[in-house]
Structure formats: C-alpha cells, structure tokens
Amino acid sequence: MTDNHSPDRLPKKPRRLHIPHRSRHVPDSEWRRTYPGPVPPQWQDIAASKGFLIVDRVRDRNHVVLRCRECGADTVQKAYVLRTAQPICGGCLETRRLQDAAKCGFTLLERDEMHHKYGHYRLPCGHAARLQFGRVERLAREGKAAGRAGFHCPTCYAARLSSDAAARGWTLLGPDPEANPNYRSYRHDSCGHTQRIAIANIITGRVGCEQCGTCWSAAPSEIYVLAFEVPHKGSFIKLGYSRDPESRLRYQLGIPGSVEARVLYRFPMRTGHIAQKTEKALHGKLKQRFPDSVIPCNELADWINVKTEIYRADILPHVLTYLKAATANQQTSPRSGKPRSSG
Ligand SMILES: [Zn+2]
Ligand SMILES: [Zn+2]
Ligand SMILES: [Zn+2]
C-alpha cells in the first residue's frame, strides 16, 4: 500500500480497475474520472470492516474504488453496495477462476464478454471451449463424479460420435433437428438416407434405416451373461442383448483392466426384437423373485459404466434355466447356452 491515496492525484500509469459485470457497458474513461469530494469517514470504516480500503471516488458521487486488503486489486463499486452487501474483489475473483481452471487441467483464456457467467478455456486436449465459471468451480471442488470421465471436450466428443457412427455404417451430420440432446442427425452410408437416431442406439448398433429397411430388430441377436469380479466386492453377473457381446464387453461397458470380466454364456435369439423382449421379461422375473440379488444403482459406479441389469452371481443357475427355456421356445441352434471358455 505504497500509493498515494489522495483522491486528486492519479498514478502515471492507470492501475487496472476491475468493473462488476453489471457496469461493463460504461466506458472506461468514466471510471477514470475522479469525483471531487472527500471520502466520508464512515464509508472508510465500513470498507475496512469488509476487507477493503477506499482509494478514490469516481464517475459520480455514488461510486468508489475499493482496494482489496487481500490481493491489492482495485474494484469499482457503488457506495450503496459497500454499505449493504459484501463487495466482491475483482482481483480475488479472477485469481480463484484461474486456480479452479488449473485444478481441472484447463487454462482460462478470457472472460466471455457476451455473458458474465462464462469464460473461454483451453482444455487438456488442446481444444478451446466456452464454459460456465460455476461448472468449472464445481469440477475443481468436487472432482469428477465417481465412475465418470469428468468433463467431455465438445470437439473431441463430436469426433467420437462420428467414429461411432462410421463403425455402424452411418455418417454424423449434426445436431438433432428436434433438438433432443440425446439424438443426432445421421446419413446412412449405403443408401444416403438421412434420419435422426439416438446416440445410444448408434453405439449399440440398434439402428434401422427408414429408407432401405436395414433393421437391427429383424437381425439375429444374442442374450449374453457376463461375469465380472470386483476387488473387495465380489462376483457379479450382467445380462443384456447385443449382436456383438464381445465388443460390448470391451468397449461400451467401460470395464477397467483391474476388473476381471468375461462373457460366460451366449444365447442366440432369432431377432433383436425377440432378444429385447426375452431380456426384459427376465429382468422383471429376477427383480421379483430375487430382489436382494439386484445390485443397487450406484454400488458399482466406480467400476462399470452400466448401472442397471447387474445381479449377484449366486442367482446364475436360475438365470440359465430361464434362458435355456426361452431359447428352446424359439427353436434355435444346438449351441445355445454352451459355456464359453473365455471372453
Ligand atoms: Zn482481492
Ligand atoms: Zn478436445
Ligand atoms: Zn438406408
């Protein structure tokens, strides 16, 4: 605090002045114009009690410049705000935002001039993104949610959606025309038809083309029983249906290397539609007969991406009995339900 605080002497090079977002429309020159008149001593007392020193009156009789005792930065405030609320130091706020960004691995590039709650950040992958300060603050404070990947770079995410689509024979065109965030617009590579599809369905390949009629629900599918061991938690099974259970195991469920997992049984189903119906009915039965073996939603959130359709391994014999019967009912090939040696 070596500056001369006398209101009628300006420093040679103007100090940086933080302006609250509500006042940013006012030209800078207004804030640089000292208002003649002493600072009332009772204002100075209030400022001191709130961690500031009034170093100037500017623009008009209602505004003061507050110097933060913590960081030394100057912030313009209304005298009214000083009297009735805890003024925010622009310097401390900026420092906090820089630190929050650093904790997340981001770099805060600049404030968004269009919206005071947003800033522009450089993400670890190198892409830039416009993010809400509050969101970055939460991410810095709480860290990523258990079992989740944290913040997704929108650019990288779009690239991933494109490659998921390409793997299923579709091209990602852009956002959903009906503005559902879980859908996108896609073009079928083999016929050129464009339609909206749920992202989850592109990932699992449960997509039917409305034009050429290629349809997952009419194509053969399989119900699989997947077994996995979670350290210190025990053995579990997961049921599901897929045209390609092995790829589902590795890629979609996001099972980390520390969890031993394999596809135990595969029951061929004549169509995806039958597989879906059979699986749904089985889940209903298991929930009713073995409620204690159903794994609660968040119990394995750190280990596996999917939170439902997971059971304790001890009900496996009942699951197999049911699936064998269901398979026999639709008269499928003799390899049904044969144990597999590995996943
Ligand atoms: Zn400060
Ligand atoms: Zn990125
Ligand atoms: Zn098509």
TrEMBL record:
Originating species: Martelella mediterranea
Q: What is this protein called?
A: Uncharacterized protein
Per the record, where are the segments of Basic residues compositional bias?
12-24
Q: Where is this region: Disordered?
A: 1-33
Q: Bias category Basic and acidic residues: which stretches?
A: 1-11
- Origin: domain of life: Bacteria
